[in-house]
Amino acid sequence: MFKDHLELEIDEHKYDLRLKDPSIFLPHNSIQEFLISDFKNKKAIILSRIDTQIKNLNIGIKILKNSNKIIKIWLDNSIYMSSNVDFFDELKNKIKFSKNELIKVDKLKKTVEKYLKFLKTLYNQSIDNYGIGKSRFSKILKKSKYINQNINELLKLGQNELKKYKSEMKKIANKNNCTIEQFFKKIDKKIIKKDKLIEITKKITLDSKKFIIKNKLFEINHKEKLIVMKTPKQLEKQFPAAAYVPPRMDDKKQIGRYFITTPRTKEELAHMNLHELKLTSVHEAFPGHHLQMSTIHNTKFKNNILRQFLASITFVEGWGLYCEKLMVDTGFSKTDYDKFLMYKMRALRACRIIIDINTNCNNWTYKKAWKFLKKHTMIPESRAKGECFWYSQRPTYPMSYLIGAHIIEKARDENVLKNKMDYITFHKKILSYGNLPAQIIANYL
Ligand SMILES: [Zn+2]
């Protein structure tokens, strides 16, 4: 597996993202990472990197000048990021710099402005298509996810699953004398007030934790802590709804952070209702990512560096999605609204399979992708665009949610539903292998 991993890394270098994505040279993400971290010497780390960041921006100008592979939507995003003038003000607000240090920070800010000006000249060198092609896509699937099906079989699976979930949504809507659209509007009326968002989320995470312990689904025998907080402003575009940032593997206290993004538009607000929040929290916190990561970090593999390299998204995200349905099946979320939204989010993950394959292997454009997603999931246009943007940057990642959940569900059916073991034992066992690819874990079970 490690050999496969290295082979893919080498391919990545050949593919050379530096020629395609101007955001690679920007300092924003790296600075941001330290701003939200617990490091005591944040300021020293940020300052020590400024010279390199200035150098990087200048290298970026040299490299991109001669590139004819710049991807247009990535260029748009880089321009958006570097136009964020608030970024440096916020940095200065959060960290107290001396006069001399401020000169350094301002020099970086000026270089970003120069870079931004340069980026705006690149549109005639940019291209629309960002697909990585069938052969590279298949290779990543084979060498990092160890999935047996080929691309056509996976595409068919995505299409069938989308049909299945939409028909489940229709059934629930019809039961309530509504069409899918009408039923969806009914849920929209149950909006949460912005200032209550964090408080309510905290309560949901506590309730779900109690539920899984009481109903003997999981045991929590390790020290963990979850902090629920508002998404920092600079991360809102990256995390349009919510996100979970896990503790590091060797942290003594396993503290995870669950970010909730305050809705900015009316359309986004309409999607912030109690049932969606419940579904998201189950995915991100208990029994989703927070329980998953803090448990895995407590296994005998916790200091195994190889395992950290091999962490697989089919298991990480497959788990999150598995938990969404598990909590409906076991009665934590039991209203028709809960069930309907669970299927809606499954339909979204089925769309991810279809879009992932079609944009990378069948020349679908960005516009075709987000329009398809919007049509089948009824999510706001801004969110559909944001979704398809991140899909463009992470080939095979979007499809991993549903593919991974299927693998875990199949293993659950073979073990728990056939009474070979109870839920606690099954979950303990499946989380004991670390974050290996879901298919590999399933083979071990
Ligand atoms: Zn997730």
Describe what you observe in this structure.
With 445 residues, the protein is mainly alpha-helical. The protein has 2 domains: 21-127, no CATH class; 138-221 and 263-444, no CATH class. Helix content is 64%, strand content 5%. The chain has 21 helices and 5 strands. The protein has helices spanning 2-15, 28-35, 42-65, 72-82, 86-94, 99-119, 134-145, 151-175, 180-188, 197-214, 266-270, 274-284, 289-296, 305-309, 313-329, 336-361, 366-377, 381-393, 397-417, 423-430, 438-444; strands at residues 70-71, 126-127, 224-230, 242-245, 254-260. It has a 3-stranded mixed sheet. A two-stranded parallel sheet has the order 1-2. It starts with a helix and ends with a helix. The model has no long low-confidence stretch (mean pLDDT 91). The structure holds zinc ion.
Key descriptive features of the protein:
mainly alpha; 445 residues; three-stranded mixed β-sheet; 5% strand; 21 helices; two-stranded parallel ribbon; 64% helix; 5 strands; binds zinc ion; 2 domains
